[in-house]
Amino acid sequence: MWGLLLVGLGAAIFLHIIGYLHFWDLWHYWPLVLVVIGVNKMIGFPTARHFTSGLWTLFIGVWLFFTFEGLFGLTLKNSWPFVIIAYGIGMILEPFIKARFPENPESDHEN
């Protein structure tokens, strides 16, 4: 995933240099990088900890993108309670996530 991120960054900078793209106009999309990182942590064979971490990274990326873009009238000033709500939802989902994912997937592959 990091390789793809570097390829995309390098291509965007190159296109900016040759005049086909205004790189700084794309800067407000940076929270979507957090979304990609979060999804990457959640796919495959994650542990409960990795899945929860990916879910939080995904949430923070989406929340920041919505607030920076002003979608649905959200700003950092009026949307911060969503972090509290998300934390509460995370506490509710934690037992279900731990029951779904193995604690140590490496031990499953040793047998």
Provide a concise account of the structure shown:
By secondary structure, the chain is an all-alpha fold. The protein is built from six helices and no strands.
Q: In percent, how much strand structure appears in the residues?
A: under 5%
Shape: flat
Structural class: mainly alpha
Rg over CA atoms, rounded to whole Å, is 18 Å
Largest sheet: none
Secondary-structure element series: HHHHHH
The share of residues in helices is over 70%
Low-confidence segments, ≥5 residues, pLDDT <50?
Answer: 107-111
Distance between the termini: 30 Å
- What is the β-strand count? 0
Mean of residue pLDDT values: 83
Give me the number of helical elements. 6
Could you please describe the fold and organization of this structure?
- Helix 2 (31-42) packs antiparallel against helix 3 (48-69) and helix 3 packs antiparallel against helix 5 (81-100).
- By secondary structure, the protein is an all-alpha fold.
- It is built from six helices and no strands.
Descriptive key words:
111 residues; mainly alpha
Helix-strand blueprint:
Layout: H1 2-17, H2 31-42, H3 48-69, H4 76-79, H5 81-100, H6 105-110
Helix pairs in contact: 2-3, 3-5
